[in-house]
Amino acid sequence: QSVLTQPPSVSAAPGQKVTISCSGGSNNIGANYVSWFQRLPRTAPKLLIYDSKNRPPGISDRFSGSRSGTSATLGISGLQPGDEADYYCGTWDSFLSSYVFGTGTKVTVL
Amino acid sequence: QVQLVQSGAEVKKPGASVKVSCQASGYTFIDYDINWIRQATGQGLEWLGWMNVKSGNTGNAQQFQGRVTMTRDTSIDTAYMELSSLRFEDTAIYYCARAPAKYCKKKGGCYGGYNWFDPWGQGTQVNV
């Protein structure tokens, strides 16, 4: 059972923006940085955002991250068909001494 | 470029063990940790544990306590994850992922969490 909660799905038309929420608690998101991962069909997950808001080299600036209190948000602007994927948040849980992932969100481009 | 290449698919019977390898290239192997994550079909990502490659110290998720063993061979830049007493519900794709190294005391434990996993291996399908 995941410690972090995400909406099961979000959708929007090409060019629009979607946001994905990730809700946790004081021992995980409230205390540690959040990462976001993209899992395209039949591929390994890829790091999109680290330290809650930073993009690794090569990641489009259409992807953005933020954290406030015990929640984090991933934004995807200028939605493209190639963005259709599952997105997961993740962070360290200081109480569990474990890394925890969100429940995952499927993004659909209408 | 930085890359993790995993071993091929495995088919095992319940009760058996499976050992997955993860060979690193493109960076100094001992300067980073390796984490293991799995994903069953239709399910989300599930973290199994971590290994500090330099010290060999490991830690794992509570639900895998006593069943998961993580090791490494620094002479060939390869990490291993062995899962024992396999159950049908262990059927999943298993991934290794590079992470920043924890701070580990010379004669003590390791401290801190992880801010990122990058890159991930291509995944190893394990069918039980």
Question: Could you give the topology of this structure?
Answer:
The complex is a heterodimer of chains A (110) and B (128).
Chain A: E1 9-12, E2 18-23, E3 34-39, E4 46-49, E5 63-68, E6 71-76, E7 85-93, E8 98-101, E9 105-109
Parallel strand pairs in A: 1-9
Antiparallel strand pairs in A: 2-6, 3-4, 3-7, 5-6, 7-8, 7-9
Chain B: E1 3-6, E2 10-11, E3 18-25, E4 32-39, E5 45-52, E6 58-60, E7 68-73, E8 78-83, E9 92-100, E10 103-104, E11 110-111, E12 124-127
Parallel strand pairs in B: 2-12
Antiparallel strand pairs in B: 1-3, 3-8, 4-5, 4-9, 5-6, 7-8, 9-12, 10-11
Name the chain pair whose interface involves the most residues: A-B, 28 and 25 residues
- Relative helix content of chain B: under 10%
- Mean of residue pLDDT values of chain B: 96
Number of DSSP helices of chain A?
0
Main β-sheet description of chain B: 6 strands, mixed
Low-confidence stretches of chain A: none
N-to-C SSE series of chain A?
EEEEEEEEE
H/E order of the elements of chain B?
A: EEEEEEEEEEEE
If strands are numbered along the chain, what order do they take across the biggest sheet of chain B? 2-12-9-4-5-6
User: What is the number of beta strands of chain B?
Assistant: 12
Beta-strand segment tally of chain A: 9
What is the straight-line distance between the termini of chain A? 30 Å
**Helix count, DSSP H or I runs of 4 or more residues of chain B:** 0
Which structural class best describes the helix and strand composition of chain A?
mainly beta
